[in-house]
Amino acid sequence: MANKHRGSCLCGSVKYELLGEFQSFFLCHCTRCQKSTGSAHGANLFAKAGTLTWLNGESDVRTYKHPNSFHAKSFCSKCGSAIPTFAESINSVMVPAGSLDSPVPIPPTAKIFVGSSAQWSMKLCDVPSYERLPEQAKS
Ligand SMILES: [Zn+2]
Ligand SMILES: [Zn+2]
Questions:
Q1: Where is the CENP-V/GFA domain (predicted)?
Q2: How far is the CA of 70 from the centre of ligand 2 (A)?
Q3: 4-138 topology per CATH
């Protein structure tokens, strides 16, 4: 079924199923997402009126709501992985792309808050790429 999606956290304690369709997929470069992910940007899909069901590990789910903002993040209390959050303000389930085990069905819609981008993440096309861990990283 095209509108059925599944995912899990890194340690496997939390598993979920989402019924619904994704309307958008945003790569958010805001400073909150940088802190929250420890990386250049968040990567979240949004499913309006989607139905989220925890198949496993619901008691391990924690949600952080940032004061005075709509920024929220759910995560596994055992491994810290980002997992879906219901965003009340927009009546949508927000799904971190990396948490999905089923295929990510749509390409990114847009990069947002690029004015806040980390300086180091501006020109990643020019960075050398390797299939695996290169020798220089092992020494
Ligand atoms: Zn986990
Ligand atoms: Zn953000």
A1: 5-131
A2: 10
A3: 2.170.150
